[in-house]
Amino acid sequence: MKKLPVGLQTFxxxxxxxxxxxxxxxxxxxLASQGKYFFLSRPRRFGKSLLVDxxxxxxxxxxxxxxxxxxxxSDFDFTPHPVIRLDMSMFDxxxxxxxxxxxxxxxxxxAAEHGLELTxxxxx
Length: 124
Description:
This protein is mostly helical.
């Protein structure tokens, strides 16, 4: 019997840990192939973080995580792409300067991970 993924928010841990997973990867395919911008709004504790992490894994090209799932069986192109994921819960939102500093620091880290150098001082 598979374990329940209580508190898990990372798709990789869920798949590699052999947890129970209701396959929703068709929605990832639909998001990638339709439209341009999406706003994900669901109440707290309804799987937004797991969905965003699933999308990240797909666009980073980690096909092996999708074996046996809808997306892995589809014609989805698993060519790796750089992914920018900003977790707003990690920033101090009480002050504009602290928020700007946090976003800038995250963008610098992400750029360095992809071998890029940012030259602007502003997150914009």
